[in-house]
Amino acid sequence: MHSQLYFIVAIFSMASVTFIIRFMPTFLPKKLLNSPLLLAVNKALPLAVMILLILTSLAWLDNNQQFNPSKLLIAQILALIFVLISYHMFRQLFVSMIVGIVCINLFLKILT
């Protein structure tokens, strides 16, 4: 019962923080929202979040929790390079996603 209460409190606390953050622009004055610091954070945050998502999804560790540049990591990095190149060339997110999926599978097949 204790773990269920923990999960319920965790879910409600995350929901309340999300609710407060999403509705904060409604309550804050426009002068504060147009501050240079907040505009710079707003501009840089999506890129930072994407970089963090990419770095945490890479397979840095092997099964023994030690750094080992495995075939999966090499395939992921190569596929990521191809995704960046395709997005730079075509500026189409959907095409880059397809290129990434094809490349990761192709590189895994080549490397194994």
TrEMBL record:
Keyword terms of this UniProt record: Membrane, Transmembrane, Transmembrane helix
Alphabetized Pfam families for the sequence: AzlD
Residues annotated as transmembrane: 5-24, 44-61, 70-87, 93-111
InterPro entries in the record: Brnchd-chn_aa_trnsp_AzlD
Protein name as catalogued: Branched-chain amino acid transport
Source species of the chain: Moraxella macacae 0408225
Lineage: Bacteria, Pseudomonadati, Pseudomonadota, Gammaproteobacteria, Moraxellales
